[in-house]
User: Fold these one by one.
Assistant:
Number 1:
Amino acid sequence: MSPDSGRHLRDAVATARGLTKVYGRGEAAVHALAGVDIDFARGEFTAIMGPSGSGKSTLMHCMAALDTPTSGQVVVDGVDVSTLGDKALTRLRRDRIGFVFQSFNLVPTLSAAENITLPMDIAGRKVDKDWYDTVVGILGLGPRLSHRPNELSGGQQQRVASARALVGRPAIVFADEPTGNLDSRSSAEVLGFLRRSVDEFGQSIVMVTHEPSAAAYADRVVFMADGSFVDEMRRPTAESVLDRMKTMGDL
Ligand SMILES: Nc1ncnc2c1ncn2[C@@H]1O[C@H](COP(=O)(O)OP(=O)(O)OP(=O)(O)O)[C@@H](O)[C@H]1O
Protein backbone atom coordinates (compact mmCIF):
# COMPACT_ATOMS: atom_id res chain seq x y z
CA MET A 1 0.00 0.00 0.00
CA SER A 2 1.19 3.50 -0.71
CA PRO A 3 2.08 5.85 2.15
CA ASP A 4 -0.74 8.22 1.23
CA SER A 5 -3.34 5.55 0.55
CA GLY A 6 -5.28 6.74 3.63
CA ARG A 7 -5.97 9.98 1.83
CA HIS A 8 -6.94 8.11 -1.32
CA LEU A 9 -9.24 5.84 0.62
CA ARG A 10 -11.32 8.78 1.83
CA ASP A 11 -11.93 10.23 -1.61
CA ALA A 12 -11.22 7.28 -3.87
CA VAL A 13 -13.37 7.02 -6.99
CA ALA A 14 -12.23 3.44 -7.64
CA THR A 15 -10.54 0.86 -5.44
CA ALA A 16 -9.30 -2.70 -5.77
CA ARG A 17 -8.68 -5.02 -2.84
CA GLY A 18 -6.95 -8.39 -3.15
CA LEU A 19 -7.67 -8.42 -6.85
CA THR A 20 -6.55 -11.57 -8.65
CA LYS A 21 -7.07 -12.75 -12.22
CA VAL A 22 -5.95 -16.16 -13.33
CA TYR A 23 -6.18 -17.21 -16.97
CA GLY A 24 -6.13 -20.94 -17.70
CA ARG A 25 -5.65 -23.79 -15.25
CA GLY A 26 -3.03 -26.06 -13.75
CA GLU A 27 0.44 -25.75 -15.22
CA ALA A 28 -0.80 -23.42 -17.95
CA ALA A 29 -2.32 -20.96 -15.44
CA VAL A 30 -1.23 -17.33 -15.88
CA HIS A 31 -1.58 -15.11 -12.81
CA ALA A 32 -2.26 -11.86 -14.64
CA LEU A 33 -3.16 -10.14 -11.34
CA ALA A 34 -1.54 -11.53 -8.22
CA GLY A 35 -3.45 -9.68 -5.48
CA VAL A 36 -3.63 -5.97 -6.24
CA ASP A 37 -4.63 -3.34 -3.65
CA ILE A 38 -4.95 0.10 -5.16
CA ASP A 39 -6.95 3.32 -4.84
CA PHE A 40 -7.56 5.85 -7.57
CA ALA A 41 -8.32 9.30 -6.16
CA ARG A 42 -11.27 11.34 -7.33
CA GLY A 43 -10.33 14.30 -9.50
CA GLU A 44 -6.88 12.90 -10.25
CA PHE A 45 -5.14 11.73 -13.44
CA THR A 46 -3.37 8.40 -12.85
CA ALA A 47 -1.15 6.61 -15.37
CA ILE A 48 -0.49 2.86 -15.12
CA MET A 49 2.87 1.70 -16.45
CA GLY A 50 4.89 -1.49 -16.41
CA PRO A 51 6.54 -4.04 -18.67
CA SER A 52 4.56 -5.88 -21.32
CA GLY A 53 2.50 -8.63 -19.69
CA SER A 54 2.65 -7.06 -16.21
CA GLY A 55 -1.15 -6.93 -15.97
CA LYS A 56 -1.94 -3.29 -16.78
CA SER A 57 -4.79 -3.97 -19.21
CA THR A 58 -6.17 -6.76 -17.05
CA LEU A 59 -6.24 -4.43 -14.03
CA MET A 60 -7.98 -1.72 -16.00
CA HIS A 61 -10.51 -4.09 -17.55
CA CYS A 62 -11.38 -5.58 -14.15
CA MET A 63 -11.73 -2.11 -12.61
CA ALA A 64 -13.88 -0.93 -15.51
CA ALA A 65 -16.18 -3.96 -15.20
CA LEU A 66 -15.21 -5.12 -18.69
CA ASP A 67 -13.68 -8.31 -17.25
CA THR A 68 -14.46 -10.38 -14.15
CA PRO A 69 -11.70 -10.92 -11.59
CA THR A 70 -11.00 -14.40 -10.24
CA SER A 71 -11.16 -13.01 -6.69
CA GLY A 72 -11.04 -9.74 -4.83
CA GLN A 73 -13.16 -6.63 -4.70
CA VAL A 74 -13.61 -3.67 -7.04
CA VAL A 75 -15.55 -0.60 -5.94
CA VAL A 76 -16.35 2.10 -8.51
CA ASP A 77 -18.00 5.33 -7.37
CA GLY A 78 -19.16 3.63 -4.19
CA VAL A 79 -20.60 0.56 -5.94
CA ASP A 80 -19.20 -2.92 -5.22
CA VAL A 81 -18.98 -4.23 -8.77
CA SER A 82 -18.94 -7.92 -7.77
CA THR A 83 -22.44 -7.65 -6.32
CA LEU A 84 -24.01 -6.48 -9.59
CA GLY A 85 -25.95 -8.56 -12.07
CA ASP A 86 -25.63 -8.11 -15.84
CA LYS A 87 -28.17 -5.31 -16.15
CA ALA A 88 -26.74 -3.29 -13.28
CA LEU A 89 -23.22 -3.82 -14.68
CA THR A 90 -24.32 -2.49 -18.06
CA ARG A 91 -25.86 0.53 -16.35
CA LEU A 92 -22.68 1.14 -14.31
CA ARG A 93 -20.49 1.02 -17.43
CA ARG A 94 -22.91 3.22 -19.36
CA ASP A 95 -23.68 5.85 -16.73
CA ARG A 96 -20.61 6.13 -14.53
CA ILE A 97 -17.65 5.05 -16.65
CA GLY A 98 -16.15 6.62 -19.77
CA PHE A 99 -13.83 4.63 -22.05
CA VAL A 100 -11.11 5.64 -24.50
CA PHE A 101 -9.43 2.81 -26.42
CA GLN A 102 -6.28 2.72 -28.54
CA SER A 103 -8.32 1.82 -31.61
CA PHE A 104 -10.90 4.65 -31.11
CA ASN A 105 -13.89 2.24 -31.38
CA LEU A 106 -16.17 4.68 -33.21
CA VAL A 107 -19.23 3.52 -35.13
CA PRO A 108 -18.28 3.96 -38.83
CA THR A 109 -21.79 4.70 -40.11
CA LEU A 110 -22.44 7.52 -37.61
CA SER A 111 -21.23 11.13 -37.74
CA ALA A 112 -18.82 12.51 -35.14
CA ALA A 113 -21.73 14.22 -33.38
CA GLU A 114 -23.78 11.02 -33.32
CA ASN A 115 -20.80 9.04 -32.03
CA ILE A 116 -20.26 11.53 -29.21
CA THR A 117 -23.82 11.28 -27.93
CA LEU A 118 -24.40 7.58 -28.74
CA PRO A 119 -23.98 6.19 -25.19
CA MET A 120 -26.35 8.82 -23.83
CA ASP A 121 -28.82 8.28 -26.67
CA ILE A 122 -28.83 4.53 -25.99
CA ALA A 123 -29.36 5.21 -22.29
CA GLY A 124 -32.19 7.63 -23.06
CA ARG A 125 -30.31 10.33 -21.17
CA LYS A 126 -30.64 13.97 -22.12
CA VAL A 127 -27.43 15.53 -23.39
CA ASP A 128 -26.42 18.66 -21.46
CA LYS A 129 -26.09 21.03 -24.43
CA ASP A 130 -23.82 23.53 -22.65
CA TRP A 131 -21.46 20.79 -21.53
CA TYR A 132 -21.54 19.18 -25.00
CA ASP A 133 -20.63 22.55 -26.56
CA THR A 134 -17.82 23.03 -24.02
CA VAL A 135 -16.31 19.59 -24.71
CA VAL A 136 -16.65 19.90 -28.49
CA GLY A 137 -15.19 23.42 -28.34
CA ILE A 138 -12.17 22.47 -26.25
CA LEU A 139 -11.45 19.57 -28.58
CA GLY A 140 -11.80 21.79 -31.66
CA LEU A 141 -14.35 19.40 -33.18
CA GLY A 142 -16.92 22.00 -34.24
CA PRO A 143 -16.13 21.95 -37.98
CA ARG A 144 -15.97 18.14 -38.04
CA LEU A 145 -19.19 17.19 -36.31
CA SER A 146 -20.99 16.03 -39.46
CA HIS A 147 -18.04 13.90 -40.65
CA ARG A 148 -17.95 10.11 -40.44
CA PRO A 149 -14.91 8.49 -38.78
CA ASN A 150 -13.33 7.53 -42.13
CA GLU A 151 -13.33 11.23 -43.04
CA LEU A 152 -11.33 12.08 -39.93
CA SER A 153 -7.63 11.74 -39.09
CA GLY A 154 -6.58 9.37 -36.28
CA GLY A 155 -6.09 12.33 -33.97
CA GLN A 156 -9.54 13.71 -34.78
CA GLN A 157 -11.10 10.28 -34.25
CA GLN A 158 -9.48 10.00 -30.84
CA ARG A 159 -10.73 13.49 -29.97
CA VAL A 160 -14.26 12.31 -30.88
CA ALA A 161 -13.75 9.23 -28.69
CA SER A 162 -12.52 11.49 -25.85
CA ALA A 163 -15.59 13.71 -26.22
CA ARG A 164 -17.81 10.60 -26.15
CA ALA A 165 -16.10 9.47 -22.91
CA LEU A 166 -16.50 12.87 -21.23
CA VAL A 167 -19.89 14.12 -22.40
CA GLY A 168 -21.88 11.93 -20.01
CA ARG A 169 -19.89 13.31 -17.03
CA PRO A 170 -18.79 9.84 -15.86
CA ALA A 171 -17.37 9.33 -12.38
CA ILE A 172 -14.21 7.94 -13.97
CA VAL A 173 -12.64 7.62 -17.42
CA PHE A 174 -10.51 4.57 -18.23
CA ALA A 175 -8.16 5.07 -21.18
CA ASP A 176 -6.22 2.10 -22.58
CA GLU A 177 -3.19 3.38 -24.52
CA PRO A 178 -5.21 6.28 -25.94
CA THR A 179 -2.20 7.67 -27.83
CA GLY A 180 -0.83 4.33 -29.02
CA ASN A 181 -1.92 4.98 -32.62
CA LEU A 182 -1.28 8.73 -32.73
CA ASP A 183 1.59 10.94 -33.86
CA SER A 184 3.20 13.19 -31.26
CA ARG A 185 1.12 16.26 -32.12
CA SER A 186 -2.21 14.43 -31.95
CA SER A 187 -1.05 12.70 -28.76
CA ALA A 188 -0.33 16.06 -27.17
CA GLU A 189 -3.79 17.32 -28.15
CA VAL A 190 -5.60 14.34 -26.67
CA LEU A 191 -3.46 14.23 -23.51
CA GLY A 192 -3.77 18.00 -23.10
CA PHE A 193 -7.54 17.64 -23.23
CA LEU A 194 -7.54 14.82 -20.67
CA ARG A 195 -5.32 16.94 -18.41
CA ARG A 196 -7.61 19.94 -18.79
CA SER A 197 -10.68 17.88 -17.97
CA VAL A 198 -9.04 16.96 -14.65
CA ASP A 199 -7.81 20.49 -13.83
CA GLU A 200 -10.88 22.43 -14.89
CA PHE A 201 -13.75 19.98 -14.42
CA GLY A 202 -12.48 17.60 -11.73
CA GLN A 203 -12.65 14.54 -13.98
CA SER A 204 -11.03 11.34 -12.65
CA ILE A 205 -8.89 9.51 -15.21
CA VAL A 206 -6.94 6.25 -15.21
CA MET A 207 -4.78 5.66 -18.28
CA VAL A 208 -2.60 2.74 -19.30
CA THR A 209 0.39 3.86 -21.34
CA HIS A 210 3.82 2.68 -22.45
CA GLU A 211 5.03 6.19 -23.13
CA PRO A 212 6.87 8.19 -20.42
CA SER A 213 5.94 11.40 -22.25
CA ALA A 214 2.24 10.47 -21.93
CA ALA A 215 2.60 9.42 -18.28
CA ALA A 216 4.11 12.86 -17.57
CA TYR A 217 0.64 14.40 -18.06
CA ALA A 218 -0.61 12.45 -15.02
CA ASP A 219 -0.60 13.50 -11.36
CA ARG A 220 0.53 10.05 -10.32
CA VAL A 221 2.12 7.09 -12.07
CA VAL A 222 1.66 3.59 -10.66
CA PHE A 223 4.03 0.85 -11.76
CA MET A 224 3.08 -2.79 -12.15
CA ALA A 225 5.29 -5.86 -12.47
CA ASP A 226 4.27 -9.52 -12.61
CA GLY A 227 0.65 -8.82 -11.78
CA SER A 228 1.40 -6.66 -8.74
CA PHE A 229 1.45 -2.96 -7.95
CA VAL A 230 5.13 -2.31 -7.13
CA ASP A 231 5.73 1.43 -6.96
CA GLU A 232 4.29 4.86 -7.60
CA MET A 233 5.51 8.34 -8.41
CA ARG A 234 3.86 11.74 -7.97
CA ARG A 235 4.42 14.77 -10.22
CA PRO A 236 6.14 12.64 -12.85
CA THR A 237 8.28 13.95 -15.67
CA ALA A 238 9.11 11.98 -18.82
CA GLU A 239 12.72 11.73 -17.56
CA SER A 240 11.84 10.50 -14.06
CA VAL A 241 9.42 7.91 -15.48
CA LEU A 242 11.99 6.72 -18.00
CA ASP A 243 14.60 6.36 -15.25
CA ARG A 244 12.17 4.32 -13.15
CA MET A 245 11.28 2.09 -16.11
CA LYS A 246 14.96 1.38 -16.80
CA THR A 247 15.29 -0.11 -13.32
CA MET A 248 12.30 -2.36 -14.14
CA GLY A 249 14.01 -3.75 -17.21
CA ASP A 250 11.38 -2.46 -19.60
CA LEU A 251 13.83 -1.14 -22.18
N1 LIG B 1 -7.43 -13.82 -22.42
C1 LIG B 1 -6.26 -14.23 -21.93
N2 LIG B 1 -5.95 -15.54 -21.85
C2 LIG B 1 -4.78 -15.96 -21.33
N3 LIG B 1 -3.82 -15.15 -20.86
C3 LIG B 1 -4.06 -13.82 -20.92
C4 LIG B 1 -5.28 -13.30 -21.46
N4 LIG B 1 -5.22 -11.95 -21.38
C5 LIG B 1 -4.03 -11.64 -20.82
N5 LIG B 1 -3.32 -12.77 -20.55
C6 LIG B 1 -1.99 -12.85 -19.92
O1 LIG B 1 -2.06 -12.13 -18.69
C7 LIG B 1 -0.84 -11.40 -18.47
C8 LIG B 1 -1.16 -9.93 -18.30
O2 LIG B 1 -1.66 -9.41 -19.55
P1 LIG B 1 -2.05 -7.89 -19.74
O3 LIG B 1 -2.59 -7.75 -21.12
O4 LIG B 1 -2.89 -7.43 -18.61
O5 LIG B 1 -0.63 -7.17 -19.62
P2 LIG B 1 -0.20 -5.70 -20.03
O6 LIG B 1 0.70 -5.22 -18.94
O7 LIG B 1 -1.40 -4.89 -20.34
O8 LIG B 1 0.65 -6.00 -21.34
P3 LIG B 1 0.92 -5.10 -22.64
O9 LIG B 1 1.72 -3.92 -22.14
O10 LIG B 1 1.76 -6.00 -23.51
O11 LIG B 1 -0.40 -4.71 -23.22
C9 LIG B 1 0.05 -11.72 -19.67
O12 LIG B 1 0.93 -12.75 -19.31
C10 LIG B 1 -0.92 -12.17 -20.72
O13 LIG B 1 -0.31 -13.05 -21.63
Number 2:
Amino acid sequence: MLAVTGSSGSGKTTLLTLVGGLAKPATGTATYDGGPVTTKAGDPLPGTGFVLQSYGLVPTLTAAENVSIALRGRGVGPVEATEKAVQALGRVGVDELADRLISELSGGQLQRVAVARALVVEAAVLLADEPTSELDEANRDVVVGQLRMEANRGAVVLVATHDPAVAEECDEEVHLVDGRIEVHEAPPPPPEPGHEHDAFMRPGTS
Ligand SMILES: Nc1ncnc2c1ncn2[C@@H]1O[C@H](COP(=O)(O)OP(=O)(O)OP(=O)(O)O)[C@@H](O)[C@H]1O
Protein backbone atom coordinates (compact mmCIF):
# COMPACT_ATOMS: atom_id res chain seq x y z
CA MET A 1 0.00 0.00 0.00
CA LEU A 2 1.77 3.04 -1.33
CA ALA A 3 0.99 6.69 -0.68
CA VAL A 4 1.63 9.13 -3.52
CA THR A 5 2.05 12.59 -2.04
CA GLY A 6 3.14 15.98 -3.32
CA SER A 7 1.83 19.49 -3.67
CA SER A 8 -1.00 20.41 -6.02
CA GLY A 9 0.18 20.05 -9.61
CA SER A 10 3.20 17.88 -8.68
CA GLY A 11 1.93 15.01 -10.85
CA LYS A 12 0.03 12.57 -8.59
CA THR A 13 -2.97 12.16 -10.90
CA THR A 14 -0.70 11.97 -13.93
CA LEU A 15 1.31 9.17 -12.30
CA LEU A 16 -1.81 7.19 -11.42
CA THR A 17 -3.28 7.55 -14.91
CA LEU A 18 0.00 6.36 -16.43
CA VAL A 19 0.21 3.40 -14.05
CA GLY A 20 -3.42 2.57 -14.80
CA GLY A 21 -3.02 2.82 -18.56
CA LEU A 22 -5.54 5.67 -18.85
CA ALA A 23 -2.87 7.88 -20.42
CA LYS A 24 0.12 7.07 -22.58
CA PRO A 25 3.54 8.23 -21.45
CA ALA A 26 5.09 10.79 -23.81
CA THR A 27 8.42 9.04 -23.22
CA GLY A 28 9.35 5.76 -21.56
CA THR A 29 7.03 2.84 -20.84
CA ALA A 30 4.69 1.77 -18.05
CA THR A 31 4.72 -1.98 -17.36
CA TYR A 32 3.08 -4.31 -14.87
CA ASP A 33 4.12 -7.91 -14.30
CA GLY A 34 6.40 -7.77 -17.33
CA GLY A 35 3.82 -6.45 -19.80
CA PRO A 36 2.44 -3.06 -20.85
CA VAL A 37 -0.25 -1.57 -18.59
CA THR A 38 -2.67 -1.19 -21.49
CA THR A 39 -4.38 -3.84 -23.57
CA LYS A 40 -4.01 -3.88 -27.35
CA ALA A 41 -7.21 -1.85 -27.62
CA GLY A 42 -5.65 0.84 -25.44
CA ASP A 43 -7.91 0.03 -22.48
CA PRO A 44 -6.57 -0.36 -18.93
CA LEU A 45 -5.75 -3.92 -17.85
CA PRO A 46 -8.88 -5.74 -16.63
CA GLY A 47 -7.35 -6.25 -13.16
CA THR A 48 -7.14 -2.51 -12.45
CA GLY A 49 -9.63 -0.65 -10.24
CA PHE A 50 -9.85 3.13 -10.08
CA VAL A 51 -11.16 5.78 -7.75
CA LEU A 52 -11.00 8.80 -10.01
CA GLN A 53 -10.59 12.27 -8.52
CA SER A 54 -13.75 13.35 -10.37
CA TYR A 55 -15.43 9.99 -9.50
CA GLY A 56 -16.72 9.32 -13.04
CA LEU A 57 -20.15 8.22 -11.77
CA VAL A 58 -23.24 8.26 -14.01
CA PRO A 59 -25.66 10.84 -12.52
CA THR A 60 -28.82 9.30 -13.98
CA LEU A 61 -28.18 5.88 -12.42
CA THR A 62 -28.48 4.81 -8.78
CA ALA A 63 -25.53 4.23 -6.49
CA ALA A 64 -25.98 0.44 -6.75
CA GLU A 65 -26.24 0.61 -10.54
CA ASN A 66 -23.01 2.64 -10.74
CA VAL A 67 -21.19 0.03 -8.67
CA SER A 68 -22.72 -3.00 -10.38
CA ILE A 69 -21.74 -1.63 -13.82
CA ALA A 70 -18.13 -2.43 -12.96
CA LEU A 71 -19.06 -6.09 -12.47
CA ARG A 72 -21.48 -6.27 -15.41
CA GLY A 73 -18.60 -5.10 -17.62
CA ARG A 74 -16.67 -8.11 -16.35
CA GLY A 75 -19.40 -10.56 -17.29
CA VAL A 76 -21.14 -10.93 -13.89
CA GLY A 77 -24.93 -11.50 -14.12
CA PRO A 78 -27.37 -8.77 -12.98
CA VAL A 79 -28.58 -10.39 -9.75
CA GLU A 80 -25.11 -11.24 -8.46
CA ALA A 81 -23.76 -7.85 -9.59
CA THR A 82 -26.47 -5.98 -7.65
CA GLU A 83 -25.94 -8.13 -4.54
CA LYS A 84 -22.19 -7.54 -4.58
CA ALA A 85 -22.68 -3.84 -5.31
CA VAL A 86 -24.81 -3.40 -2.19
CA GLN A 87 -22.22 -5.33 -0.15
CA ALA A 88 -19.45 -3.07 -1.46
CA LEU A 89 -21.51 0.04 -0.64
CA GLY A 90 -21.90 -1.41 2.86
CA ARG A 91 -18.13 -1.65 3.25
CA VAL A 92 -17.95 2.15 3.12
CA GLY A 93 -21.20 2.77 5.00
CA VAL A 94 -23.49 3.87 2.16
CA ASP A 95 -25.57 0.76 1.47
CA GLU A 96 -28.69 2.62 2.61
CA LEU A 97 -28.14 4.89 -0.42
CA ALA A 98 -28.10 1.98 -2.88
CA ASP A 99 -31.33 3.02 -4.61
CA ARG A 100 -30.67 6.77 -4.60
CA LEU A 101 -29.71 8.56 -7.81
CA ILE A 102 -26.12 9.79 -7.99
CA SER A 103 -27.43 13.30 -8.74
CA GLU A 104 -29.05 13.35 -5.27
CA LEU A 105 -25.94 12.51 -3.23
CA SER A 106 -23.53 14.72 -1.28
CA GLY A 107 -19.84 15.03 -2.15
CA GLY A 108 -18.75 12.65 0.59
CA GLN A 109 -21.45 10.14 -0.33
CA LEU A 110 -20.39 10.28 -3.99
CA GLN A 111 -16.80 9.68 -3.00
CA ARG A 112 -17.71 6.57 -1.03
CA VAL A 113 -19.79 5.23 -3.94
CA ALA A 114 -16.72 5.72 -6.16
CA VAL A 115 -14.62 3.81 -3.62
CA ALA A 116 -17.22 1.02 -3.49
CA ARG A 117 -17.07 0.73 -7.29
CA ALA A 118 -13.30 0.20 -7.08
CA LEU A 119 -13.61 -2.28 -4.19
CA VAL A 120 -16.25 -4.45 -5.83
CA VAL A 121 -14.03 -5.69 -8.66
CA GLU A 122 -11.37 -7.18 -6.34
CA ALA A 123 -8.69 -5.58 -8.48
CA ALA A 124 -5.07 -6.75 -8.63
CA VAL A 125 -4.07 -3.08 -8.78
CA LEU A 126 -6.22 -0.45 -7.09
CA LEU A 127 -5.49 3.18 -7.94
CA ALA A 128 -7.20 5.68 -5.65
CA ASP A 129 -6.86 9.39 -6.43
CA GLU A 130 -7.53 11.40 -3.27
CA PRO A 131 -10.22 8.93 -2.15
CA THR A 132 -10.83 10.64 1.20
CA SER A 133 -10.68 14.34 0.27
CA GLU A 134 -14.43 14.91 0.92
CA LEU A 135 -14.70 12.79 4.07
CA ASP A 136 -14.76 13.44 7.80
CA GLU A 137 -12.20 11.64 9.95
CA ALA A 138 -14.44 8.70 10.82
CA ASN A 139 -15.32 7.98 7.20
CA ARG A 140 -11.74 8.60 6.11
CA ASP A 141 -10.66 5.87 8.53
CA VAL A 142 -13.34 3.53 7.16
CA VAL A 143 -12.14 4.05 3.58
CA VAL A 144 -8.46 3.68 4.49
CA GLY A 145 -9.35 0.52 6.43
CA GLN A 146 -11.05 -0.91 3.34
CA LEU A 147 -8.07 -0.05 1.14
CA ARG A 148 -5.87 -1.81 3.70
CA MET A 149 -8.10 -4.87 3.43
CA GLU A 150 -7.54 -4.85 -0.33
CA ALA A 151 -3.78 -4.72 0.24
CA ASN A 152 -4.03 -7.57 2.76
CA ARG A 153 -5.92 -9.56 0.11
CA GLY A 154 -2.87 -9.14 -2.12
CA ALA A 155 -3.76 -6.09 -4.21
CA VAL A 156 -1.26 -3.38 -5.02
CA VAL A 157 -2.89 -0.19 -3.69
CA LEU A 158 -1.71 3.28 -4.73
CA VAL A 159 -3.30 6.20 -2.89
CA ALA A 160 -2.71 9.77 -4.03
CA THR A 161 -3.34 11.97 -1.02
CA HIS A 162 -2.82 15.37 0.55
CA ASP A 163 -3.69 13.97 3.99
CA PRO A 164 -0.67 13.05 6.16
CA ALA A 165 -2.92 10.78 8.26
CA VAL A 166 -3.71 8.71 5.14
CA ALA A 167 -0.05 8.59 4.06
CA GLU A 168 0.84 7.45 7.59
CA GLU A 169 -1.41 4.40 7.19
CA CYS A 170 0.44 3.27 4.04
CA ASP A 171 3.51 1.01 3.99
CA GLU A 172 5.56 3.31 1.81
CA GLU A 173 5.35 6.81 0.43
CA VAL A 174 6.54 8.32 -2.81
CA HIS A 175 6.71 12.07 -2.75
CA LEU A 176 6.48 13.94 -6.03
CA VAL A 177 8.17 17.24 -6.68
CA ASP A 178 7.60 18.71 -10.15
CA GLY A 179 6.83 15.25 -11.56
CA ARG A 180 9.86 13.53 -10.02
CA ILE A 181 9.74 10.87 -7.33
CA GLU A 182 11.57 10.90 -4.02
CA VAL A 183 11.17 7.56 -2.18
CA HIS A 184 10.63 7.44 1.59
CA GLU A 185 10.34 3.94 3.00
CA ALA A 186 8.50 3.39 6.26
CA PRO A 187 10.81 2.72 9.23
CA PRO A 188 11.44 -0.99 9.91
CA PRO A 189 8.98 -2.65 12.31
CA PRO A 190 10.02 -2.77 15.99
CA PRO A 191 11.96 -5.91 17.01
CA GLU A 192 9.97 -8.82 18.41
CA PRO A 193 9.88 -9.14 22.21
CA GLY A 194 13.10 -10.73 23.48
CA HIS A 195 15.10 -9.46 20.50
CA GLU A 196 15.15 -5.77 21.44
CA HIS A 197 18.96 -5.64 21.66
CA ASP A 198 19.74 -7.67 18.52
CA ALA A 199 20.18 -4.51 16.48
CA PHE A 200 23.08 -3.47 18.70
CA MET A 201 24.99 -6.79 18.53
CA ARG A 202 28.15 -6.99 16.52
CA PRO A 203 28.17 -9.48 13.62
CA GLY A 204 29.30 -12.91 14.78
CA THR A 205 28.11 -12.46 18.38
CA SER A 206 25.02 -14.16 19.76
N1 LIG B 1 -3.83 16.53 -19.99
C1 LIG B 1 -2.85 17.34 -19.59
N2 LIG B 1 -2.10 17.95 -20.51
C2 LIG B 1 -1.10 18.77 -20.14
N3 LIG B 1 -0.77 19.02 -18.85
C3 LIG B 1 -1.49 18.43 -17.92
C4 LIG B 1 -2.57 17.55 -18.21
N4 LIG B 1 -3.10 17.10 -17.04
C5 LIG B 1 -2.38 17.68 -16.07
N5 LIG B 1 -1.42 18.47 -16.58
C6 LIG B 1 -0.44 19.25 -15.82
O1 LIG B 1 0.45 18.30 -15.23
C7 LIG B 1 0.82 18.74 -13.92
C8 LIG B 1 0.48 17.65 -12.93
O2 LIG B 1 -0.94 17.55 -12.82
P1 LIG B 1 -1.62 16.46 -11.89
O3 LIG B 1 -3.10 16.58 -12.10
O4 LIG B 1 -0.98 15.15 -12.13
O5 LIG B 1 -1.20 17.00 -10.44
P2 LIG B 1 -1.67 16.52 -9.00
O6 LIG B 1 -0.41 16.32 -8.20
O7 LIG B 1 -2.59 15.36 -9.10
O8 LIG B 1 -2.42 17.81 -8.48
P3 LIG B 1 -3.68 17.98 -7.46
O9 LIG B 1 -3.15 17.66 -6.09
O10 LIG B 1 -4.02 19.44 -7.62
O11 LIG B 1 -4.77 17.05 -7.92
C9 LIG B 1 0.09 20.06 -13.67
O12 LIG B 1 0.98 21.11 -13.93
C10 LIG B 1 -1.04 20.03 -14.68
O13 LIG B 1 -1.39 21.33 -15.06
